[in-house]
Amino acid sequence: MDKLLIRGGRRLQGEVVISGAKNAALPEMCAALLTTDPVRLTNVPRLQDVATMRRLLQSMGMDVQTVGERGGMRFHCAGPLEPRAPYELVKTMRASILALGPLLARLGHASVSLPGGCAIGQRPVDQHISGLRAMGAEIEVAHGYIQARLPAGRQRLQGARITTDMITVTGTENLLMAATLAEGETVLENAAQEPEVADLAEMLIRMGARIEGHGSSRIRVQGVQRLHGCEHAVVADRIEAGTFAVAVAATGGDVLLRHARAEHLGAVLEKLREAGVRVQEENTPEGSALRVQSEGAAHLKAQNFRTSEYPGFPTDMQAQFMALNCVAQGHSAVTETIFENRFMHVNELARLGARIHVEGRTADIDGAASLTGATVMATDLRASASLVIAALVAEGQTRVDRIYHLDRGYDQMEEKLRAIGADIERVSA
Ligand SMILES: CC(=O)N[C@H]1[C@@H](OP(=O)(O)OP(=O)(O)OC[C@H]2O[C@@H](n3ccc(=O)[nH]c3=O)[C@H](O)[C@@H]2O)O[C@H](CO)[C@@H](O)[C@@H]1O
Ligand SMILES: C=C(OP(=O)(O)O)C(=O)O
User: Fold this and answer.
1) Can you tell me which residues form the catalytic site (predicted)?
2) Measured from the CB, is residue 339 less than 6 Å from ligand 1?
3) Catalytic residues, which ones?
């Protein structure tokens, strides 16, 4: 199993190219199930989750090819499809649930294993199921599978007004994709406003879908008879950009994050600026970029924050910013409101010398900790990233075990870090 060896204490300097977003690429790969035409995505990140999704789509009968060099992929499913997502392929990946809506909309039946993904809470999919039921699907959950079908005699899902009990990102995406081919109008109330949802909607519109209001809490969809192929570039990964920004803040340095989009990182950048980090938007020939400059954690003030749905502070940045708070100056409180079990990094950060006390959903952090290298274990994707950030600051060598979590969602993280001066290597043992 691969591990990372990191020797801390280096400032980060240079440029990082931010990859396409995992949480946009995965639903967009599933959207290719909605049409018999070829679909081409560019800027797809090189991730384990993308490889798993590729295998899943291929197992259903889709032709998937890598095209070109810049993360290009072509998807084509003109022939018969086997609408089944088996446990063996979906157990590691939350986004596999996103096959359900498109398969049901196109074929009228689907069988999808209850999904895996980061073990950060119970993560039920009841809202996906009740939304699809409201659109006329008959659904039962048995033997770990969601079995969904249209009633006898029906060819298409029915448009419906759906208000989810809470804001759900993949729930919104699943219902949005299903609604594109439904009969009549669907209105999604309490919809997720995350940039990845909006990017998926943009792709679906390129495929001929009639969608309005994406990026807001009410999305309206007029169903169409068929969708056609399209070409779409996956939006830049705001969480990868945020992770690198926080790493530079903690170590000190000056790094340009190419393709990063400030408008998608509002809450995180605000906290970084309040902490004392200099963050500037820059225009480059290839589009937007962010320059992050920091004198290092000794010059920064720890920040209180609460996670919440977009445009609030993203739960997917909580662990990384907590690592920064451990070494920045002063006391801070971090509250996690989205997932009930997303503090697993706390015990591992403590091994490096962090001083954190968890009470319910709030972590109290005493800053200015002098971290020292140790062996730590990655427990989930963003927890892994927080350990890498802490290790970049810690004195001496840190070994991060179980980095398969990191590989699920970061595109060549250690190469990118090494290129800006980090002392980091991957070892297989
Ligand atoms: C592949 C993907 O895009 N993953 C992201 C997505 O996960 P994911 O879409 O799974 O997260 P949700 O937005 O659905 O979850 C939000 C909250 O709603 C609850 N819930 C959700 C659906 C449901 O049917 N019932 C229910 O109770 C969840 O347990 C959680 O407490 O959004 C999360 C919140 O921004 C991110 O951390 C994940 O990186
Ligand atoms: C929780 C995450 O991923 P997933 O939903 O795929 O488990 C994440 O990206 O931080």
Assistant:
1) 118 (proton donor)
2) yes
3) 118
Distance of CA 88 to the CA centre of its chain: 21
How many CB atoms are located within 10 Å of the residue 74 CB? 17
pLDDT confidence of 90, banded at 50, 70, 90? confident
Give dist(CA 53, CA 329) in Å, integer.
Answer: 42
Task: Provide the pLDDT for residue 118.
Answer: 65
Domain 2-18+236-428 shares a fold with domain 22-233: yes
Tokens 């699809």 locate to 132
- Please tell me the distance between residue 327's alpha carbon and the centre of ligand 1 in angstroms: 29
| Token reading at 85 | 């997502």
389 confidence band (pLDDT: 50, 70, 90): very high
Domain ranges of the chain: 2-18+236-428, 22-233
CA distance 253 to 416: 15
Which atom of ligand 2 approaches the CA of 117 most closely? Answer: 7
- 380 CB under 6 A from ligand 1? no
- Confirm whether pTM is higher than 0.95: yes
- What confidence category does residue 117 fall into, taking pLDDT thresholds of 50, 70 and 90? low
- Closest to 224 in 3D by CA, of 210, 244, 245: 210
DSSP summary character for residue 18: -
**Does residue 429 carry a pLDDT above 80?**
no
95 touches ligand 1 (CB under 6 Å): yes
Q: Which numbered atom of ligand 2 lies nearest the CA of 409? A: 9
CATH class of 22-233: alpha beta
The DSSP string of 98-165 is GGHHHHHHHHSEEEEEPP----SS----HHHHHHHHHTT-EEEEETTEEEEEPPTT--S-B--EEE-S
pLDDT digits (tens, 9 = 90+) for 297-341: 999 999 999 999 999 999 999 999 999 999 999 999 999 999 998
Q: How far is the CA of 160 from the centre of ligand 1 (A)?
A: 22
**Domain 2-18+236-428 = CATH 3.65.10.10:** yes
Q: How close is the Cα of 162 to the center of ligand 2, in Å?
A: 24
Residues facing 161 on adjacent strands: 187
Helices 381-393 & 238-251 angle (0-180, nearest 10) = 20
User: pLDDT digits over 22-73, tens only?
Assistant: 999 999 999 999 999 999 999 999 999 999 999 999 999 999 999 987 899 9
Considering every ligand atom shown, identify the ligand nearest to the alpha carbon of residue 168 and give its number.
1
